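Appendix B, Record 12. Input sequence as logged:
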Amino acid sequence: MVHIRSFHPDLGLAMTGLMLVLGALAGCNMPQGRQSTPQIVNVTQAYQTVEARLTEAVTQTAGSTGSPAATDSAVIAATATQPPLPPTESSSAPVDPTAAPGVCDLAAPGIPIDVTIPDDTQMQPEQAFTKVWRLKNSGTCSWQTDYQVFLFSGEAMGAPANFSLGQQVSPGQSVEISVDMVAPQNAGTYQGNWKLRNQSGTAFGIGPNGSSSFWVRIIVVPLPTLNPTPATTTLTPMVAPTEAVQVTGQVTILPGETLDLDNNGINLGTGDDLSYESTSNGNHQLSPLGSVSLALYGEGQPTLAECQALTLTNGPLMIDKYVGQYFCYRTDLGLPGRAQIDSLDPDTYTLRLRTFTWLLP
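Logged structural output:
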């Protein structure tokens, strides 16, 4: 008796092969011609033969069912050789070509950058002044206290070649940088270009890439040419008889005090016109307050017309080298005047002035 095991339904072809094998075995046991002696079938051997044929049929059938896998491989290969999809457009805004994102040390001009002494300010020879710039930290790094401000090129005009920033400035913050200077002695246009420098010595300034310097530019105007006054034995009175006088007289002032040129009052607190100061380099100056302006005239007593024709500024006037000379001024009340630097005590720095303020109709 032959026992047939159950198989998976997909092996229908294998079952068909089994039936063919069984038929062939049966045919082998049929009598050929007329045989007198019947042969005995070895059932066990027949079963083993059927099982071997069945196994071979199943193996061949399983091999024939591998075509779907080949089909899958063809699909993957085709997919891999397809052209890539076009890139997706970015929705971000266009980049500013003048910007320098991510720059550590970078400065931008403040509003305004020239807090004092705008470009082409007119100065008297050796006139002291203080230049103040306003800068903004537009980089990504904080400026430390040991960052330096240094003269990159041009005229120093009495300023130190470099000095420490002195305070920390975070990104986005602004700082005012001031430096004391003195106008050159000779007439002309003078410009000094300055930059910043970090701890490692790398210089930077303003502009998109920090390559531009910030500067101070002044115009030194020559003193008026004075005709020599012939010597005479007659003393010229300081006040002409026909001049209307607001106030005149001699005043004594000490460093740190103020003077009202409309009444020669000292330290009144209101209406003050001049401040007498000692500078960091040991010099002394008269600084106009508020709307007051002045300018050095030189030797010889100026007239009202000469003082009115002189170009006045609101910059301080260095006095150490001009003892005995005159300067013209305009008070906070708009009155013109002149003053002589009568004397300057070298020990106490007491300053004595002879003032004359005209009263205009």
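Residues 43-64 form the longest helix (22 residues).
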